[in-house]
Every structure is written in structure tokens, then in C-alpha cells.
Amino acid sequence: MKHITTVNKANLKETAAKGGCGKCQTSCQSACKTSCTVANQKCEANK
Amino acid sequence: MDKRIHKYKQGEHYIVLDVNSGGVHIVDKIVYDMLDYVSAPMAEEMPADLCEKMSGYDKAEVQECYAELLELYRAKMLFTEDEYRKYADMTLNAPIKAMCLHVSHDCNLRCEYCFAETGDFGTGRKIMPVEVGKKAIDFLIEKSVGRENLELDFFGGEPLMAWETVVETVKYARSVEKQHGKNFRFTITTNGMLLDDEKIDYINREMSNCVLSLDGRREVNDRIRYTPNHKGCYDIIMPKYKKLVAGRKNEGRTDYYVRGTFTKYNLDFANDVLHIAEEGFDQLSVEPVVTDPKLPYALTEADLPAIFAEYDRLFDIMAKGDKRFNFFHFMIDLQQGPCAIKRLRGCGCGNEYVAVTPDGDIYPCHQFVGMEDWKMGNIFEGTVNKEIKDYFAKTHIYSKQGCADCWARFYCSGGCNANSFQYEGDVQKPNRLACEMQKKRIECGIALNALKLQRKNEEK
B460 with B407: CB under 8 angstroms? Predict the structure, then answer.
């Protein structure tokens, strides 16, 4: 494409189908403790 | 504009997020402008009036752009629908897998903004007895059926004031984890005052992550983080943090954060981030104060332009390739991030995650501690208030006011429940100030990581 660069897989829907295993870290335990930031967590099911 | 996308300009870059698929597109100005007029369902033929609306642009180029957008739309990477509501109640009856263990309701600092009310959460100064720490481990093992990885954060007050409880709790957990098929991950959040060689070695050996509190420049830090005698802590903790991080890297561990809070007193907080980086730390988290809006250092909506400008400044520095540091709030994994299910409800507080006080009382999270109405039980009774647990399980982006229509919902997951309660008196009402700052950070984070991926793809 000349006008658009898509940088990722846009796969959020796929993750719903096989998600929810609960292996991942609880977001507030990492470095915030006063604000919720979830999208920076890693999926640990794919490890 | 179609609410299924979010478009914004970050620096000189035009970014389009397809909200429901997570697709991130870097576009040029024509496509960016065109998205004011194009929405789903997209027609195979370009609408006749589009050229008129895009009158400043060449007709052939407009046609070309429409064709590219149509291709994305067909590939389900643009204007996709939100189909996640059916998963919203999936974590009802979820096991508890994470705990914030308040080993100390006492502190050796008197930081002005402390949500723990100088360390005791308004409930009296206490150190957690070792047997409570051990019982908390038993409780977490019992309540985490089906989960292998269990997280336990030693918190306070100041957890190093309860060192024996920390060491004995870890020792006990290690002695029983295998027989129960569990893997404990310990973390600690400290103000650094009591760090010494023995504790540094121990933390670097046993803690998978540690959070070191420091607000940035000496004068900024010491104005608000000081001892009971009103002496700033910067010069005491800085050499200890350097020693800890150097030792940690020698152990091959990279997980730690130097974590600061910014307030109205340092609205130029990017200078504090840079200061911490210049002191040699590379994993940084500096975030907005959560406090009573009436207090002099509280952030208000009038501060938003200054705060946004600072986030933009950090973005510019990082986008230009400054690799000295990683900024926690700009970390967004666009490829392997959390699944959609996790993104519906964020931290899991009160459901998968609880806080436990020195007396063994259970609360939804550390920020609810001391609020009697939110007490969920006691670990010695072994029960958890089901009504409160279910309430949090049912608290998600579709239950919170305004979240279901917000483009940022799969990144903040509805925000911090405790913040909402503190500011709005209702867990279901996200606070506008917190939301605006969060959205700005997400925009910066998405743009930064999109540019990184673009560079990587170009190198291939």
C-alpha cells in the first residue's frame, strides 16, 4: 500500500477465542499501584 | 468520525487505531483526512460525494486511498465490530492468584501524598507477624485452584520494616509451592531507606521484580518525600538504589522499576524522568498523584495541557531513538499483548487480586485498605465475601460509565477501580482527569511502538 502501513497483526479477536487462561501477571503488581495499565502486560500462554 | 476507529496525530505521525481488532495503521495526511468522511459499511464503489469533501486533494489519489481503506475493511482490520461483550462475565468464580501483602503498616518516611496516610492506612501502626505471612501463603494456595503462577507483592507502609516477615514468608512459600503445583513470584515495593547489602542481595536473589520509589530530581523528591524529621530522602536512597540495580544486573535480572509520582509541584515531570535516566536507571515509571483534589499538590483539569506537553516531550525523545530508558506507561505490546478477555477488566482487584493487612484482613486492593465497607474477610476465617468478589468480577468495560464507547477501553480496561471510587465515590464511574491522562499515555505508547514496528518491518 502506498498511503497506509499496517504495523501489527490486528489479532485481538483471535486472542478472545483462546484467551482467559489467567497465566499472565496481574497488572497492578508490576509498577503502577495507582493507575491501571493493562495493555503493557505480556501474554504468557504463548511462552 | 466512525467510533470504531481512533485517529490522532502524534508528532508528525498520523496514527489510526482500529479499536476492536487492535490493528494499528500509520497513514498519510490524505487518508487521515478522508477518515472524517468514511465509515462502515464501506461501499465497493467510492461514494460520489467523497471527492467533493476532499476537494483539496487530487481525485486519482483520493480514489487510491479509498481503495486502500476498502482493502483493510475487507481484511477486517478497519471498522471492525466489538464482539467481546459475551465474554464479560467469564471471570465470575475466578480463583485468586495475586496478593498485595501489607507486611508493614508503618513507614519511616512521611511522604505528603501517601494514600496509606503516612503508612498505617488510618488503622494504627503495625508489623505483620510471621504467622500471618505464612497463613497468607496457605490462603493464596487454597484459593488459586487451577492457577500455577501466583504473585505476591510485599507492600506497606514500608515492607523493609518487616524484614523478618518478608524472609520467613518467602521461605515458607518456597517450602510448600512444589507440593501444591504452584510457582510463586515475589515482588517488593520499597522506599529504599533500610536497604543494606544483605537486603539488596536477598531482593536480587528472591524477588522477580522490585519497585524502588523515587520522584526524580533531588529538590522535587525531597519536597514531598521526607523523614519524620522533615529531611529529604534523596541522598540516602540514591546510592542504595544504584547498588541494588548494579547487583540485579549482575544476577541477570532486568526486572525492576524506579517509580516516581508527579504532582502539581513538578508539572515538568519529564525532567524528572530524564534525571532518573541520567543517574543510570533504565526501567522507569513516573505517574500522576492520586489524592484529594483540594490538596495543594493535587492535579486538576487545568493542568492537563502541561501534562500532555510533558508526555509529548518524552515521546519525542524516545521516538528519536533515545534508548537509555524504558518508560513503563508507554509500554504497549502491539503484537503479543494480553488477550481480549483480560482487557475487559484490567487489574482484577477484588476478584483475582486482593490485599491482606497485618491482621490478616482482606480488601479488594491496597488502595481500599482501611475502608471498612470494602472488607472482604480475614485469612484466618478462610472466607471471602462473595458479594464483593462478584461485584468486582462484574465490573468491566461494559459496566463502567462511558467505557463501552471509548476508544481506549482495550488498553486501560476501564481504569483503576480505586481511583474511580476515590474521585467519584463510585467504582463504576471513571474519573475524567485520570481518563484524559491515561488516553494521552496510550496514544504516545501506541505511536511509539508502531514506529518501532514500522522500522523493524522496513529492515526486513
Answer: no
